Amino acid sequence: MQTCLYDKDATVFIDICVLRYSNEDIVASASIDGFDEFNAYTRNHTVPAPSEEFDAGVEMLLQAVINYTATSRSRYGTGVQVLGTNGNRRPTYALAQCQPTMAPQECSSCLSYLYQRMPVSFNGKRDGRMRLWRCLLEFDDYPFFTGDPIIRTPPPETLEIRSGRRKRHKKVDTVVIVAVAVTVFTVTLAVFLVIRTRRKRARMQLHGQAQSQNSSKTEAALKLWRTEESSTEFTLYEFSELVAATASFLNENLLGSGGFGSVYKGKLRSGAEIAVKRLSSRSNQGLEQFKTEVQLLVKLQHTNLVRLVGCCVNEEEKLLVYEYMPNGSLDQFIFDQQGPLLDWNQRLRIMEGIAEGILYLHKYSRVRVIHRDLKSSNVLLDKDFNPKISDFGLARIFRSNMMESNSKRIAGTYAYMAPEYASKGTFSVKTDVCSFGVLMLEIVSGKRNSSSDHNMLEHAWQLWREGRESELIDLRLGVCSEVAAIVRCIKVALLCVQDSATDRPTMADVLAMLAAIDGAASLPDPKLPRQLLSSGVTTGLLEIRTQLYSTMFSVNDVSITTMQGR
């Protein structure tokens, strides 16, 4: 379930059951047109060659079990058949099952759909299982179900005649029986082999069409990127170039790994250092998403965004090439207690740089962009510790007249998610503001926020409520004269992570507050989260907060004003 934690519609297949949930009515619908629900698996245990007779026998057994299951009241059927070549014969078991509420025709259609989609890779295998969430079809060389098999089909070969039971029959009768059996078997086997050959050919044709379609999409994308290459500094690399640059993706060059793939350090023939992101074959990021990310990054040019210098598409390989950041990612500095220490001025400069990068995405770039995955590991540091926002795999383009949008699939890191996005999939520019607030608290405290019950964010609110914000400051900073400025920074962060998106400041407001962090300009008080309000915050506590603030800062009437273009 961790893999589909933020999906609104998901199917989980495990050995003994199937779990499905959705935000739509999946009980009333009997549709089986969801290709992403199809699941196939084999242990790759092979039978001795030649396997054609065995495969034909498996198909006969599956057809018999399908026919029985579709008409049975329980929509459940099992069967067994002895298969294999002489000297290596063993029983093969099969099981078919549909949801009990399905009509016979629906069950038959569902199981037939599985049968028709049986992968070519199942040929010559002793086992295989295919599943949709409404039905399943399996075979194996051991009795993997409980109870005796309901159906016992004869082996697809010459029937053995036991001489002890045939002594009273004439020899001619034996010859006739054997001849008839051989003829029937030969015809049956021939029919199944023809059907199987046609089905295999159809599967290969469909596979070829899919490959051709993917190939045409790839060519279209490459054509577009060649145009980009001629008009910008963007480069379309050959796969062999990147293999050579990374020493065949040597582990020693591995910079890090994530859900979308691994990043390697590389060095081109020109001597330029690069970072190569090799997307995992298990990644859900297909060509369309990859193409969107490339086209998006090519259009984004800002000193606080990591620069995409090129890409590569080679069959199933998809790679992104970035400028190399020698200091790695921010999380390596703020969470590693034994690592290099960032002083307060460096931390403040990093926060300001990140804020400027986000403001550029929200307001000043050629296209308005919501990042949706802002976190410490996605902030890289150059040789001078200037921050560069990276990883735009989840980014979304936002029209200038849009206030918010919804996503069916909730993706990202839960600890950084805004409440409205985590619960409803609603995102806006304020979604990134909330993530930035969490990131600010991590930079100030040196502690990682988590999705556990006692997370750092909740701790920060508790300390602020009690007027003890200074306890959140990273102890590694030691005794410093900027405590008041750091506490104001914590307050800015809490303004960013307020429950209601409308209460959060814009990134322009945040930058203005950070620019005046050492001043005496008044800041509004953040609104406490609902769970803290319900826990009983008294007026007395809030009065204590106000008194504590008045002793820490000189109070005046200066306010911060930011200009917003229409």
UniProtKB/TrEMBL annotation:
Protein's membrane topology: Single-pass membrane protein
Binding locations of ATP: K277
Domain named Gnk2-homologous: residues: 36-144
Keyword ATP-binding included in the entry's annotation: yes
Gene Ontology MF terms: ATP binding; protein serine/threonine kinase activity
GO cellular component, one term: membrane
CDD domains associated with the record: Gnk2-like, STKc_IRAK
Residue stretches spanning the membrane: 175-195
Localization per Swiss-Prot or TrEMBL: Membrane
UniProt xrefs under InterPro entries: GNK2 (IPR002902), GNK2_sf (IPR038408), Kinase-like_dom_sf (IPR011009), Prot_kinase_dom (IPR000719), Protein_kinase_ATP_BS (IPR017441), Ser-Thr/Tyr_kinase_cat_dom (IPR001245), Ser/Thr_kinase_AS (IPR008271)
SMART domains: S_TKc
Residue span, Protein kinase domain: 249-517
Pfam families, per the entry: PK_Tyr_Ser-Thr, Stress-antifung
Keywords: ATP-binding, Disulfide bond, Glycoprotein, Kinase, Membrane, Nucleotide-binding, Receptor, Repeat, Serine/threonine-protein kinase, Signal, Transferase, Transmembrane, Transmembrane helix
Protein name per its UniProtKB record: Uncharacterized protein
Source organism per UniProt: Urochloa decumbens
